[in-house]
Backbone:
């Protein structure tokens, strides 16, 4: 895979004086800001990939792939996630 690019981590900046300990509210604000930035970047990357790949529904058998979401007919994804103790797979021949 010669087209894989690795990224070097950013170098830490040298602090001249010790930073004060932020309040819990400030820590939460910073985490929420970082999380929102990560979501924005993910949205931009997904949009870019969608432009590069085109419309997957126009491909041969585009709808033949399984969905990654919870199957229809379940009350919620949580109920679907719990599953059952059955060790069987869905068998269409039954």
Residues:
């Amino acid at each position: 895979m010669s087209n894989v690019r690795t990224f070097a981590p950013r170098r830490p900046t040298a602090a001249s004086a010790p930073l004060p300990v932020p309040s819990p509210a400030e820590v939460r604000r910073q985490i929420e800001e970082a999380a929102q930035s990560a979501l924005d970047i993910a949205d931009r990357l997904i949009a870019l990939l969608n432009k590069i790949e085109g419309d997957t529904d126009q491909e041969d058998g585009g709808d033949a792939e399984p969905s990654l979401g919870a199957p229809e007919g379940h009350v919620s994804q949580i109920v679907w996630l719990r599953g059952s103790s059955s060790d069987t797979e869905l068998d269409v021949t039954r």
Observations:
- The chain has a mean pLDDT of 76.
- Helices lie at 24-53, 77-82.
